[in-house]
Q: What sequence folds into this?
């Protein structure tokens, strides 16, 4: 992992680790599907013993993929696991108990340092065991589960996530331990991208060159899970960041691998592309979101949410804003607008209509085009690309407009030739999603030549806008992938909840498998459904638990009641 090795694909079992037969079988299925590392929930010493047996049985059958113990809360479990598997994941957020467990209030400098010393001593013990057994460590930080100490100083912010990683990496450096990989995950793709970029910058400044593990937590399932993962992981891979990835879906773990494979190979296709020359705009930051300032032309640009175009005229479950047919564009009231090419600028200037669409690619940016865009406030750009690295070329286009002080709104246009919906979801989410994360784009026009339903393409366009948080048009489901801690049939419950709540625009509903990590990691969900024991569920309104340990059979209906009582049912 790291160096010149390919990006490694990994996944995690969702079996009970103590169910050795089921775990071995699922692990074999994962390895056969292409997983190069497999992680197991390892809550306690009993699970370490099971993992030892699983490791032995797999090796006997000649399945030699490295196994990873996923440990939270108990350093002793990490130390035991480090002696029997190839890698241990720890979460700095819960590696040692807070010294302020019994009293609240801000940390004094002395308390802050005292707790750091405690975790350092504990972590060095693990490092020494890992050195002896040649075991690797992942420092896995998650948004929503930072330590009290870090929260107290930085809040649950990208800076806190980065600081939490860096202090553990610093210990690795001091101890001359380099078999370490680091991750920052969040369910909010935009936050995750910015935090990982910050981490990489800070690591570079400190001379830390440890591999990076990428993932979007609680990405959900189906279309949403694929879009979120592709936006989050794909944007960073396209930046050149990432040495191993895990796509987390609330589905069978084997389903994660083809998504991961396609993501990695799609990014690899753009290697050796023709160079794109451009100047980065000095006011733009890769570390925080800021939308490019544009003038509003009708309902496009300005403060309007990005608009969605379709090239099929029909009724969709979410209505697009514009329909394009050849060189004509129709709005939802049937008004018709023309599309001009760069050599038709004189014609465009005579057009009296409210919006003039100008079709451009990056190489079309000439002084004549710049003058038109500076002079006119009624032009909307349809930005096409034919470049092998189309997203980078389109990114160059936006920076050039900013450098020229041009505030014309831009519709990002991408054309694909796909017959497979999953491939289209992955490619479009990476290409278009990364631009919206950059703050670019006032609309989206996604066209496909293959056999994919227009309803699916329209839903994908809205999904990309939702995953990049620039336009919320449907309920967002934050659901964990499930693991050995999951206390109910996660996939079934997600399907049930989706079926009953999918009409609720703009709500975030979390479905989390366990009480240990669920409440922290369901991030900024409005409502949460969390497994608390066998057959028992707790329901949350925001961060507050409002119904504790209710029987599982009643929980979905109680969740609906809760949403209704709080006035969020539409
Ligand atoms: S929330 Fe709990 S059940 Fe879900 S993946 Fe995380 S640890 Fe496993």
A:
């Amino acid at each position: 992992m790291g160096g010149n090795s390919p990006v490694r694909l990994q996944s995690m079992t969702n079996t009970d680790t103590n169910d050795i037969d089921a775990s071995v079988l699922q692990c074999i299925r994962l390895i056969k599907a292409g997983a190069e590392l497999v992680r197991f929930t390892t809550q306690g010493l009993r699970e370490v013993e099971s993992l030892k047996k699983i490791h032995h049985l797999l090796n006997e059958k000649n399945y030699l993929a490295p196994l990873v113990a996923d440990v939270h809360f108990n350093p002793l479990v990490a130390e035991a696991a480090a002696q029997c598997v190839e890698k241990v994941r720890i979460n700095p957020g819960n590696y040692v108990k807070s010294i302020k467990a019994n009293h609240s209030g801000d940390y004094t400098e002395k308390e802050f340092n005292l707790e750091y010393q405690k975790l350092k001593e504990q972590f060095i013990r693990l490092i020494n065991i890992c050195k002896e057994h040649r075991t690797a460590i992942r420092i896995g930080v998650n948004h929503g589960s930072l330590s009290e100490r870090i929260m107290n100083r930085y809040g649950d912010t990208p800076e806190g996530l980065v600081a939490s990683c860096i202090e553990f990496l610093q210990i690795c450096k001091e101890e001359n331990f380099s078999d370490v990989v680091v991750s920052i995950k969040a369910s909010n793709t935009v936050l995750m991208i910015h935090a990982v970029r910050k981490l990489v910058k800070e690591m570079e400044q400190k001379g830390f060159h440890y591999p990076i593990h990428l993932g979007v937590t609680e990405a959900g399932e189906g279309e949403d899970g694929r879009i979120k993962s592709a936006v989050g992981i794909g944007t960073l891979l396209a930046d050149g960041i990432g040495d191993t990835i895990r796509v987390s879906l609330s589905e069978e773990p084997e389903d994660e691998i083809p998504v991961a494979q396609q993501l990695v190979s799609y990014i690899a296709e753009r290697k050796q592309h023709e160079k794109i020359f451009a100047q980065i705009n000095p006011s733009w930051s890769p570390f925080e979101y800021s939308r490019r300032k544009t003038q509003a032309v009708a309902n496009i640009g300005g403060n309007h949410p990005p608009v969605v175009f379709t090239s099929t005229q029909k009724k969709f479950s979410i209505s697009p804003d514009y329909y394009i047919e050849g060189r004509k564009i129709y709005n939802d009231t049937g008004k018709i607008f023309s599309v001009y090419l760069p050599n038709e600028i004189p014609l465009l200037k005579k057009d009296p209509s409210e919006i003039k669409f100008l079709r451009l690619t990056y190489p079309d940016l000439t002084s004549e085009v710049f003058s038109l865009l500076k002079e006119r406030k009624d032009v909307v750009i349809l930005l096409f690309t034919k470049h092998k690295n189309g997203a980078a070329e389109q990114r160059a286009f936006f920076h050039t407009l900013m450098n020229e002080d041009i505030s014309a709104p831009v519709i990002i246009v991408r054309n694909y030739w796909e017959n497979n919906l999953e491939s289209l979801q992955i490619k479009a989410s990476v290409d278009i999603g990364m631009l919206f994360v950059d703050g670019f784009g006032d609309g989206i026009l996604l066209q496909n030549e293959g056999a994919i339903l227009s309803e699916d393409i329209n839903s994908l366009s809205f999904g990309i806008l939702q995953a990049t948080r620039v336009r919320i048009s449907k309920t967002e489901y934050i659901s964990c992938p499930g693991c050995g801690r999951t206390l109910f049939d996660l996939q079934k419950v997600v399907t049930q909840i989706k079926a009953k709540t999918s009409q609720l625009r703009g709500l975030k509903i979390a479905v989390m498998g366990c009480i240990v990590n669920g409440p922290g990691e369901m991030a900024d969900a409005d409502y949460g459904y969390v497994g608390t024991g066998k057959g028992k569920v707790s329901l949350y309104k925001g961060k507050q638990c409002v119904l504790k340990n209710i029987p599982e059979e009643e929980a979905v209906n109680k969740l609906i009641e809760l949403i209704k009582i709080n006035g969020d049912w539409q």
Notes: The pocket of iron/sulfur cluster is lined by residues 480-483, 485-486, 512-514, 516-518, 521 (CB under 6 Å). Residues 212 and 242 are 5 Å apart (CA to CA). Residues 109-133 form the longest helix (25 residues).
